[in-house]
From TrEMBL, chain B:
Residue ranges of every copy of the Pyruvate flavodoxin/ferredoxin oxidoreductase pyrimidine binding domain listed in the record: 23-247
Any GO MF annotation of the entry: oxidoreductase activity, acting on the aldehyde or oxo group of donors
A GO BP entry: carboxylic acid metabolic process
Protein name, entry field: 2-ketoisovalerate ferredoxin oxidoreductase
Keyword Oxidoreductase included in the entry's annotation: yes
Oxidoreductase recorded as keyword: yes
Length: 137, 408
């Protein structure tokens, strides 16, 4: 697709409002190819940034993370970046701030916490809570 | 093509439902989703028999409603298969939501619609209210007058809808009971000939093509919804030359002639009845018998209800002085849809004939040659006076005092 979809006339659109995911035929093994190595189409949701819906954001504390992958499994937008079963961070272009990753995080204290969208990540990391004792709510 | 072929006689005695089922079998449909409803039940019932006896290789899915039937068809068509189903009346009404999905997603499914009245009151007999219900759904609509037409048009529906310039779903209409349950002599094609006429199905952007992943049924807001609808409309309009081409090819194959606008005795005619479905054939008898009385009567029927052949009709009707547009559906507070369409075709032409709107035959009420002759006689008077005597719309054949509306 050479022309941007926004500049296309009615006669140039793909019939049936079908959207291609990849720019060309997929001749590689999808499961073994990392998202950044795939050739996405303009119309792929990878290119549709929806992160601006967010008012609060999850901040990841790498020192507490145990790489359990729970957040990656539960994230409804695949906005958790994980490589070789190692947590790498949050894809803020696609994270909608639902907070599910924080809910499912099992560490003590949680290694993912929701902060205000305007908060800088490095400032947020300084505000991390202490480990809770047994029986403490 | 199906692995097992059926030996058919040169002439078979089939009703309209059998015609549909045989056409689906010969088209070697990949998926038929079935939720039977009167009077289209026998279409899927016969098809199921063919399936059980090994004459069909495709999938036969039993679903829990007509909404699910069309949904299954949309899913299977998006996956890359040739699909078909059949329905009537309330079932069609339940399908409507998905009909729009199917045409909007540009999936060339085929729906055998056996026309029947919409409730309430509940009625299993034929009229055109379900056909009218689907008229804006973006499907191509073909209309048959008899069983032979039903067979031919259901076959041709695949070829028309699957054409690369069109890629739209097609409804093959026939009159409930009058066509669907009346056995007539039908000349079928041989399995091989029929299949070769339609050709192999060529999927476009099939979901099961893993080398080119594609998203179907997407959301478009104001940014490009309009453009997609424009494209759909353009494809519907582009169906006219395709239909003409397919009709021509079919004539070369079988000798049976189909036209976008079917006419009978139109040459030199003063008056004409415009109607859909089986009424066409009854009206031709009435028109022929009126020759003795000196009334030059014609019968005209658009073979395509959608896209509606406005230009073709206008050309055909230039020398006619008075027209009766016969609508077999409850008018719902206005003139009938066919009257509306034909009026739209003629309003900008030089010679505008006077036009009556007759609502008739609702819920399976019969219309006879005798009645049609009376309608032609009324039209002859209109043609002579150059204006309609009485009101524009009349509910023909309803019991009680005459019911008519819209005075000039």
């Amino acid at each position: 697709m050479s022309k941007s979809i926004k500049d296309m006339g009615w006669d140039e659109l793909v019939p049936g409002a079908a959207l291609y995911s990849f720019d060309s035929n997929v001749d590689y093994l999808m499961a073994e190819t990392q998202p950044e190595d795939r050739t996405y189409c303009e119309t792929n949701s990878k290119n549709a940034y929806v992160g601006d819906w967010r008012v609060i954001k999850p901040v990841w504390n790498s020192e507490l993370c145990i790489d359990c992958q729970n957040c990656w499994v539960f994230c409804p937008d695949t906005a958790i970046i994980s490589r070789e079963k190692e947590m790498k961070g949050v894809d803020y272009d696609h994270c909608k701030g639902c907070g599910i990753c924080v809910q499912v995080c099992p560490t003590n204290p949680k290694s993912l916490l929701m902060f205000n969208e305007t908060e800088k990540n490095e400032d947020a990391l300084t505000k991390w809570p202490e480990k809770k004792k047994k029986g403490e709510e | 093509m199906n692995s097992k072929q059926m030996e058919l006689n040169e002439v078979e005695v089939w009703d309209g439902n059998t015609c549909n089922a045989q056409a689906l079998r010969q088209a070697s449909v990949d998926v038929v989703a079935a939720y039977p409803i009167t009077p289209s039940t026998n279409t899927v019932e016969n098809y199921a028999t063919f399936h059980a006896n090994g004459y069909v290789d495709g999938e036969f899915i039993m679903v829990e409603s007509e909404h699910a039937a069309m949904s299954a068809c949309v899913g299977a068509a998006a996956a890359g298969g040739r699909v078909a189903t059949a329905t009537s009346s309330q079932g069609c009404a339940l399908m409507v939501e998905v009909l729009y999905q199917c045409s909007g997603m540009r999936l060339p499914a085929v729906l055998c619609l056996v026309n029947r009245a919409l409730a309430a009151p509940l009625n299993v007999n034929g009229d055109h209210s379900d056909m009218y219900l689907t008229r804006d759904a973006g499907w191509i609509q073909l209309d048959s007058f008899n069983a032979q037409n039903a067979y031919d048009l259901t076959l041709m529906a695949f070829k028309i809808g699957e054409h690369m310039d069109v890629r739209l779903p097609v409804i093959s209409n026939q009159d409930g009971f009058l066509t669907s349950h009346t056995a007539q002599t039908v000349r079928p094609l041989k399995d091989e000939v029929a299949y070769n006429f339609i050709g192999d199905y060529v999927p476009v952007n099939a979901m099961l093509d893993f080398s080119k992943p594609v998203t179907h049924g997407v959301q478009t807001e104001h940014d490009w919804h309009f453009e997609h609808k424009a494209k759909q409309h353009a494809a519907l309009q582009a169906a006219f030359p395709v239909v003409e081409e397919v009709f021509k090819e079919f004539k070369e194959l079988t000798g049976r002639e189909y036209n976008i606008v079917e006419t009978h005795n139109l040459e030199g005619a003063d008056v004409a009845i415009i109607c859909l479905g089986t009424t066409y054939e009854t009206a031709t008898i009435a028109a022929d018998e009126l020759k003795e009385e000196g009334i030059k009567a014609a019968v005209v029927s658009p073979r395509l209800f959608r896209p509606f052949p406005l230009t073709q009709l206008a050309q055909k009707l230039q020398n006619v002085k008075a027209i009766a547009c016969m609508d077999r559906s409850a008018p719902g507070g206005t003139v009938g849809a066919l009257y509306n369409e034909v009026a739209g075709a003629l309003i900008n032409t030089e010679a505008r004939p006077v036009m009556r709107n007759l609502i008739y035959g609702l819920g399976g009420r019969d219309i006879t040659v005798h009645e049609l002759k009376d309608i032609f006689r009324d039209l002859a008077k209109d043609a002579e006076n150059g204006k309609i005597t009485g009101k524009i719309q009349r509910l023909h054949g309803v019991r009680g005092p005459e019911l008519s509306f819209y005075e000039l």
